[in-house]
Design goal:
Elements lengths: L1 H8 L5 H12 L2 H6 L2 H5 L6 H8 L4 H13 L2 E4 L7 H4 L7 E6 L9 E6 L5 H16 L3 E4 L5 H11 L4 E4 L13 H10 E5 L11 H12 L2 E5 L6 H11 L3 E5 L6 H11 L3 E2 L3 H5 L23 H6 L19 H6 L9 H4 L5 H10 L4 E2 H8 L3 H13 L3 E4 L3 E4 L4
Parallel strand pairs: 3-4, 3-7, 4-5, 5-6, 7-8, 8-9
Antiparallel strand pairs: 1-2, 2-6, 10-12, 11-12
């Protein structure tokens, strides 16, 4: 049966939303595999490329992936397994398959806290991440992050110091060590928690993979903590996904006037919960997990080791002439300007996206629309449209505008 799952996830032009819809239509992954061209075409929303890919019943790639899993000691969790987290299953675009190493926590029964932030973090940010990771874990939380250099790695290091299980969600195969500086950290996580990825073993850390994996970090969490983030960072994508998924968002206050804190400070202005210590986070979930959460104020003296100081990537500080940040132009201009711009050609890309994504792109042709307007135009469930917008934004096909409006992206 695993062969069919992996076969399905390697089909072209489906995406997680398309796979979910197919499973809803056919019931089981085996039924999807055994279906014929006519049954696929009767779906109506499947593009020609997706239908053609589904008609290819060759399982050799699936067998090769399973062989890599066996070699790397990876396990495979499918969306229909009893152990599959309900928190993920509730998403509009849950991963159909997860590859993991280590021991999978019972995510649904644990106060899981996502921690994200800048790769190029300051010493202040790294210390905050390490202390918060430790304190959250000491209070009974399970810290989950992306294991990237900087805030991610330091928050996981702090949680491991507390002797609690952790989880890392990678933007590459679960058998791939990235970055190389996290080799020892990933081994510790494998031993004391788990490493997760929706990407098959051997998948390299491509840039487009990281924003996609962020929905898993937020999806498995009850709340997400942002420590140091610029205005354009993957951490803010994770925070936005958390809000759309109904999760709480916390932020650590950063230095005023510095770019690498501007995004996290803006979250506080927008209503994120201020987090100065781990208990600021965990007290929000004490009633939900009364047997697991306990107040513990520890780890205030945690500092960075010499190796952590040496390996960190300190943000480049602006020179005297660059200390005044240039104010952006009024956001309303972006909303109103639809003329004299060369947008992507929808017809040129529509064959490479899912049915929901195609509907969203078509609705946005020549228009700037709010999310509600797009939902009405597409006549699709709100969760499907929001998931499609997120994926299209990650792929650079849709641009988010102020006031929760969207447009097609401009050609590069």
């Amino acid at each position: 049966m695993l062969r069919y799952w992996i076969w399905l996830t390697t089909r072209d032009s489906l995406g997680c939303v398309g796979i979910r819809e197919l499973l809803g239509r056919f019931g089981t992954v085996e039924a999807v595999y055994l279906a014929g061209r006519g049954e696929y075409e009767s779906e109506g929303g499947l593009g020609a490329r997706a239908v053609e890919s589904l008609c290819d019943k060759d399982l050799s790639v699936a067998d090769e992936i399973l062989g890599r899993c066996d070699k790397a000691n990876l396990r495979v969790l499918t969306a229909q397994d009893a152990a599959y987290p309900r928190r993920l299953a509730a998403l509009a675009d849950p991963p159909a398959v997860l590859y993991y190493a280590g021991t999978l926590p019972d995510f649904d029964a644990e106060p899981v806290i996502g921690m994200v932030g800048a790769r190029s973090a300051s010493a202040y940010g790294l210390v905050c991440a390490k202390r918060l990771g430790y304190q959250i874990a000491a209070c009974g939380g399970v810290v989950i992050s992306g294991a990237a250099r900087g805030i991610d790695a330091m928050s996981l290091t702090g949680a491991l110091t507390a002797g609690r299980p952790t989880a890392a969600v990678l933007g590459c195969g679960a058998d791939v060590v990235y970055p190389n500086s996290s080799r020892c950290l990933l081994e510790d996580i494998r031993t004391n928690g788990c490493i997760l990825s929706e990407f098959p073993p051997g998948t390299q850390p491509l840039p487009q993979n990281f924003p996609i994996r962020n929905r898993i970090i937020s999806g498995l969490s009850v709340g997400v903590v942002v420590v140091e983030a610029s205005r354009r960072s993957g951490a803010l994508i994770t925070a936005r996904l958390a809000l759309e998924q109904g999760r709480d968002v916390f932020a650590v206050p950063g230095n005023i006037g510095l770019d690498y804190c501007a995004g996290s400070n803006q979250l506080l202005k927008d209503g994120a919960i201020l987090a100065e210590c781990g208990w600021d986070v965990m007290q929000e979930y004490e009633r939900l997990f009364p047997q697991k959460i306990h107040r513990t104020v520890l780890g205030a003296d945690l500092t960075l080791s010499e190796n952590e100081l040496r390996e960190r990537s300190e943000p480049r500080r602006p020179g005297v002439a660059a200390t005044v940040e240039k104010l952006p132009e009024c956001d309303k201009k972006d909303v109103d300007k639809t003329k004299n711009k060369d947008y992507i050609d929808v017809q040129a890309v529509i064959g490479s996206v899912s049915r929901d994504e195609a509907a969203v792109l078509t609705a946005l042709e020549g228009k700037n629309l709010s999310a509600d307007d797009i939902i009405e135009a597409c006549q699709l469930p709100a969760s499907n449209v929001l998931a499609a917008l997120t994926l299209l934004e990650v792929r650079g096909l849709v641009k988010r505008l102020p006031a929760r409006r969207f447009s097609l992206a401009e050609k590069s």
